[in-house]
Design goal:
alpha/beta, Spore Coat Polysaccharide Biosynthesis Protein SpsA, Chain A, nine-stranded mixed beta sheet, two-stranded antiparallel ribbon, 11 strands, globular
Length: 344
């Protein structure tokens, strides 16, 4: 359920918890034959009698896998290699009915990972919600299977969350394999920016469309943004408990914008911290079916407007017709000229 205003009283995480305990480095079974579990339990320094020991923070990493066996394995290894120095690292992988043996491979290679096997493709939002429910961390990281972490990325995000307890979602910079910056944040969709980004005839009118097409470039410094891209999202579990999980009516795409909007409405901030970086290959699970990818994106966009602007039904129906026309024409154009998938 959404809350109309920021909670008047909130359970605050103590800033004294900025010191993290334990060692989350877990063996990567795929590359090692032996395992050392001597550091698997949390180690807390001795305290004077009568002192209350604050439980260490925990981080849950939720990864969605769909026919990306090797890429998902690389992602998991990246989490182990670059995890922050906190106790209780919790990795959950949801396999959305992969046909390439991903689930068996992950189960064998990473026995410490909690694996959920779906018998059908449940989509991004629904599968991520499964992972969130199965996890226990104070913070939940939604990480695309085709992403690889940089050193200190998670430390940077968690540290910012600890120092700013009004932040519900935090994200960072996503880079291509070549190091180019990808769109990592978004402005909320409006009828105006849809008109000027989906209509080829109006795209040349940059002067008139400029105010409708907000720049999606990553800022140079930590900033509040409308919404963050869903491939690298750190969520505070407390904020999820108040605003709800991802909306499963969005099968694929736009669910990240929707939950960002709900966070803002409930009084939580949405922040991008550019210093936290990941390599994001992009389209690893959708590249083979570009038309379906287009269709999912356009349908989710239409549902977003129907959900957040229900009183503008005639305008929404007109928007839906325009999106359908754009889907058919752009798919035909891409099929003929083999243009890369850039519509989403």
């Amino acid at each position: 359920m959404e809350s109309s205003a920021r909670p008047s009283s909130r359970k605050r995480l103590s800033k004294k918890r900025s010191r993290w305990y334990g060692n989350c480095a877990s063996p990567i079974v795929r590359n090692r034959n032996s395992r050392d579990n001597t550091n698997s339990k949390t180690k807390i320094a001795d305290k004077p009698t009568g002192t209350v020991i604050t439980p260490p923070l925990t981080l849950s990493v939720v990864i969605l896998s769909f026919n990306t066996k090797e890429i998902t394995a690389d992602c998991i290894e990246s989490v182990y290699r670059h995890c922050p120095t906190i106790a209780g690292l919790d990795i959950v992988v949801i396999d959305n009915a992969s046909e390439d043996g991903s689930a068996d491979f992950i189960e064998t290679s990473f026995p410490d990972v909690k694996l959920i096997r779906n018998t059908k493709n449940r989509g991004f939002a629904s599968a991520c919600n499964q992972g969130i429910r199965a996890s226990y961390g104070d913070f939940v990281l939604l990480l695309n299977s085709d992403a690889k972490l940089f050193d200190q990325s998670l430390d940077v995000l968690i540290d910012y969350m600890l120092r700013n307890d009004d932040v519900g979602i935090c994200g960072g910079t996503m880079l291509t394999a070549e190091g180019e910056v990808q769109p990592s944040c978004h402005s909320f969709p409006t009828y105006g920016n849809i008109l000027f980004t989906k209509n080829w005839l109006l795209k040349p009118l940059k002067f008139f469309g400029k105010k409708f097409r907000k720049n999606r470039e990553v800022p140079n410094h930590t900033s509040d943004v409308d919404a963050l891209a869903g491939g690298f999202l750190l969520l505070r579990r407390e904020s999820l408990a108040r605003v709800g999980l991802l909306d499963e009516r969005f099968f694929f795409y736009v669910e990240d914008i929707d939950i960002s909007r709900r966070m803002w409405r409930a009084g939580w901030r949405v922040v991008i911290v550019p210093k936290a970086r990941v390599i994001h290959l992009g389209g690893a699970s959708t590249r083979r079916k570009p038309f379906k990818s287009y269709a999912w994106h356009h349908r989710s966009l239409f549902r977003y407007f129907m959900k957040h602007y229900p009183l503008l039904l005639p305008l929404n129906l007109l928007l839906g017709a325009g999106l359908f026309f754009h889907l058919i024409v752009s798919s035909a154009f891409n099929a003929i000229f083999k243009r890369p998938d850039k519509s989403c």
